[in-house]
Amino acid sequence: FLGAGGGNDIQWCFSQVKGAVDDDVAEADIISTVEFNHSGELLATGDKGGRVVIFQQEQENKIQSHSRGEYNVYSTFQSHEPEFDYLKSLEIEEKINKIRWLPQKNAAQFLLSTNDKTIKLWKISERDKRPEGYNLKEEDGRYRDPTTVTTLRVPVFRPMDLMVEASPRRIFANAHTYHINSISINSDYETYLSADDLRINLWHLEITDRSFNIVDIKPANMEELTEVITAAEFHPNSCNTFVYSSSKGTIRLCDMRASALCDRHSKLFEEPEDPSNRSFFSEIISSISDVKFSHSGRYMMTRDYLSVKIWDLNMENRPVETYQVHEYLRSKLCSLYENDCIFDKFECCWNGSDRQVQLCSGIVMTGSYNNFFRMFDRNTKRDITLEASRENNKPRTVLKPRKVCASGKRKKDEISVDSLDFNKKILHTAWHPKENIIAVATTNNLYIFQDKMN
Amino acid sequence: MFVRGLKRKCFDGEEDIEGTLAGIKAIPSYNLQRQSLLDMSLVKLQLCHMLVEPNLCRSVLIANTVRQIQEEMTQDGTWQMINTQSTGQASLDRLVSTDILCRSSREQAEGKHVPGYSAFSKDFEGDQAQDSSETMSTGSSVQAPRNLQSDVWEMENPQENKGNFQKSLDQIFETLENKSPNSVEDLFSEVDNSYYDLDTMLTGMMSNTKMGHCDGLETFSSPTTTTSNSNCKSDLNELDHIVEILVES
C-alpha cells in the first residue's frame, strides 16, 4: 500500500497480543494510552495502575524477510503513584492519561507521561557494560582495606546482560487544578503543552518550576461553566500554532504570536448542527474526544461519539469529510446515556507518515465497541471493521471483516446491535509511523496487527 | 451481554394511551420521556461525588442536558411549581440533603462497595418491559407518591445516616421534589487556588469542605436559544417504572 493512490487495500493479519488471558480484568491492568515512538521501534503503553510498559521491535530477521520484527517487553516501570489531595479530600489517580515520545537525540530515549495532575519526563537508557576492576572496591561493592592494596590497575568496561533503566528526569507538577487530558510536544522540541479541562499550559522541557498559561476558559463564576477543553495538540510544523477541542464540538486554532494568553482563537472550526438529528443528546455526542493533525499539517481529524471528521485548516465552517463509525448507535443514545457509555472517549489516528502518501490523504483508524475497530481509506472511500480478539490469533491469517446489522434481517456472520458488548471498548489505537503495523488496545490487552506482505 | 435498556419498549408518540384525548396523545409520552431523562440526569450528577474527583467534562455535559430539559419544560409551561416551606428552611434542607447524600455515599465507599449508578439501573434491568398502557397510567401518578415520601432522614445525626444506597436514592428524589423551577444546584466545586501555593502535605487537615460541595442555589443563566419542540425520538427507558419501584420500596 505504500504507493500513492488506491488499488492495494491493506490486508491486516494478527501478529501478537500482550496481556493477561483471563476474563477477570484487574483494574490496574486497564490500558489507558498507547503510543509508538518516532521510529516505530518502541511501543509504549500506560495503564490505570500508573505503569508504563515499553515494547521493542526486534531487528528484522534477514532470513525471514516476509515478517517484520516482533515486539517484546523492553522496559517496565512505575511512572505515577496514587496521591491524595488533602485539601480537597480526593484521591489523585495514578492512571496514565497520555504518553508522548520525544524524538531521539542520543542513545537514550525520552518520553513524557502524565496522570491527572503531574507530567513526568522519563529517560530510558540501556546499559550493557559495566566497569570492573576497581582498586578500592571489591566486585560486590564492599570497600577494601587500603592497606591491602599492593598493585594498581585501571578499571575496564566489561559486557553485561542488557539492562534497561528508566529514570525520571523532570517532574512538572502543581500547574493544573483540573484533570490533564492532553500533552503535546512542540515541533521546536523544546517546549510542550499540557491541557486540562479548563486551561492549557506551555512548558519548557528543561524547566519544571514554571509554566505559562496560554489558554484559560474558566469562567469567573464556576456556575456558569458550560464548556470544557477535551483535547489539544501542537501543529506538526508551525511551532506557534496549536488547536484545542471542546465539549461543544468546536475546535479552536490559536497562534501564540498573537498574544500571551490565547483566549481569542485565530480560527474556530464548527459544523452547524443538523436540525433533523437534534435531540437532548446532540451536545453530548458532539463533544470531541480526540484531535490529531495530519502529518503534513494541512488537515486535522476529530473524533466525536459517532463519527470521525477531517477538517481542512483553511475551511472553518464544516469538515471536508465525515465518516460514521457506528451510526447504528444513534437510536440507542438514551441507553448509552444511562450506562455512561455515551461519555466514552475514543481516540483516532492517522496512518504512518510515509512521505509518498503524505500529500494525498491516507487512512484513519478509530475504535468502537465489541472490540471492533474501524479504518477509513480517504482515497478509495472504503471502510472496514475489524475485531481484536484472541480467536483470530493465527499469525499471517488475514483478519475477517466484521459487520454490524443495524436493523432488519441479520445476515450470516453479521452481528446485531443488541448483541454488542459495550464493556469491550477500543479507545486507544496507534499506527506505526513508517510501516503498516498497528497497535490496538482492548480493555487490558494490546493487539499488534500488520499487513500481509508478499 | 451488556445491553442496558435496549429491551425496553420505546415510547412512541403514536401509541394508544388510555384516557387521553387523541389530539394530545403524543404529548404525555414525550413529557414522560423528558421527565425521566431529567430525573436520570439529576441522579447521575448526585452520584458522581465519590472518592476520586468527578469527571468535569461528564458533569458539564449532564448539567447542560438538565438545563436544556428544564428550559424546554419552562417554555412549555409544564414545569410544576412545587410549594416548599419557608425558603430558609428549604434551602437548608437542600444543602443538608446533598451533603448527606455525598457523605453517606462516601462513607459507603470507604466501608463497602458502592453500587453506583450503574448498579442502580441494573436493579431494574431484571424487570421486563411492562405493558405500555400500564406504564402510562402509573406514569401520571409518579409525582404523587413522591410527595408522600415524607419519611425524612434524621437531620440531627447525619453521621449516623450511613444510609444504604436505597435510602440515598429516596433522598435524591426528595431533593428533586423540592426544587424550585429556576434553580440548579451548584455542581462545580469552586477551588480556591491560593491553597495550591501551600505545601500540600498538610496532614490532619482533611477538610470536609470539598466532599461534593453543593453550595447554595443558582439561578439559571440566560436562556440559550431554545430547541424547537422536536420530538426526542431516542429510546427512552421506562423510568417511570423505575421510579415506581423506588417509591414503593
From TrEMBL, chain A:
What is the protein named? Serine/threonine-protein phosphatase 2A 55 kDa regulatory subunit B
User: Which species expresses this protein natively?
Assistant: Heliornis fulica
Q: Which Gene3D superfamilies match?
A: YVTN repeat-like/Quinoprotein amine dehydrogenase
Q: Recite the UniProt keywords alphabetically.
A: Repeat, WD repeat
Lineage top rank: taxon? Eukaryota
The answer on whether this UniProt entry bears the keyword NADP reads no
The record, for SUPFAM superfamilies, names:
WD40 repeat-like
GO MF, one annotated term: protein phosphatase regulator activity
InterPro entries, per the entry: PP2A_PR55, PP2A_PR55_CS, WD40/YVTN_repeat-like_dom_sf, WD40_repeat_dom_sf, WD40_rpt
- What would be one Gene Ontology cellular-component term for the protein? protein phosphatase type 2A complex
Question: What family is this?
Answer: Belongs to the phosphatase 2A regulatory subunit B family.
Automatic annotation (TrEMBL), chain B:
Q: Which InterPro entries match?
A: E2F-SERTA_domain_protein, SERTA_dom
Q: What is this protein called?
A: CDCA4 protein
Q: Name one Pfam family in it.
A: SERTA
Whose protein is this, by species? Answer: Heliornis fulica (sungrebe)
Coiled coil, from the record: none
Q: Where is this region: Disordered?
A: 112-148
| Gene Ontology CC terms | nucleus
Source organism superkingdom:
Eukaryota
Start-end of Polar residues biased regions: 129-148
Domain SERTA spans what residues?
A: 30-77
